Amino acid sequence: MSKLNEKEIIEKDNQEIQIRLSSIKSQIVELNNFYFTPSNSPINTLASETLKNIGLDYVKSSFGINKTTTKKVLKQAQNTQKIQLEEEIINKINSFQKEVISLLSSMSEKSQTNKKNSEKLVRKINRVNQAKKSETKIKRFIEILDSLSFATLVYNSNLKILRRLRDQNKNQRLSKKKHERVKLSQLKTLVNKDESATLDFKQTTYNKNKRWQGKEKSEFAKDIVSFANTRGGKIILGVVDKTSEITGIDLTLFSPETMLQIATEYTIPPLPSLEIYLMELNQKNIGIIDVPESNSKPHAFKTLKGDEEIYIRFGSINRKARVNDIRKMKVN
């Protein structure tokens, strides 16, 4: 799914959802017309047929029952029929309502999935349940479907992917504006510096084998989150801290694509806006991970246990963020 076909995806989703909603509305309108239009209402039909077949005069002459008693019997028959029909209507409405709720749970308005819209929709559905008369239930139900017909609707799963892609593209643009790849002369200067709030050295790559382990993924995510939550910085692979010895890295273990994937999957919100590339110094391969300061901090990373923790860069170490640290990040 790419940005190029985003409009096409939304239009396809909306068309499919609106067809389903329209089908439900047609069935409800048909239900309403059948039960509540005077000309063909089952209750009115019952009354007219009963009167026609029984006949008040015939009942009186044949059975000696007066008109008042006959009317009471007829009224009781009508009420019994009405109760049965009411139950039948409510069962059908409940069935349609379950179908709509199931559909709503998988979709959102394209413009906003905000809490306000969701709460408003829930209130409307509750009003359908609160109505005592089936006729009122149908009327309120149709109002909900009419309001949804004016919205551009998209499935939550697709909307989540589209928004994630937009965020990634935005972060990548910001990253390119703020950071340029290190030049060889700059790299020579960097490796002779001490670790700091914006610089970290790793003697090797994070992964010992091509197949990354959970602990390695979590450690990598913690490092990049710490920099992104603070001032940004560079992680240099293949240089020994303290001694500045250039050991280089094993190229078979260095995969920028895999690292970017881990950065997206193990950080919350995703932090894919990294520059990861290779350089050569003293005939040794050096890996550079350039982490920009994030505009959407605080970011958390997934621990080995699956928990989410927020870290910051504090001097030359990573430290778990305190409440005040998180508050400052949100304000800034």
Describe this structure in words.
- The structure is a single chain.
- By secondary structure, this protein is of the alpha+beta class.
- The chain has two domains: 3-157, no CATH class; 179-331, Methyltransferase, Cobalt-precorrin-4 Transmethylase, Domain 2 (2-Layer Sandwich).
- It contains eleven helices and eleven strands.
- Strands 3-4-7-6 form a four-stranded mixed beta sheet, with helices on both faces.
- The longest helix has 38 residues, at 67-104.
- The chain is elongated.
- The protein starts with 5 loop residues before the first helix and ends with a helix.
Concise structural overview:
The chain is an alpha+beta fold and 332 residues long.
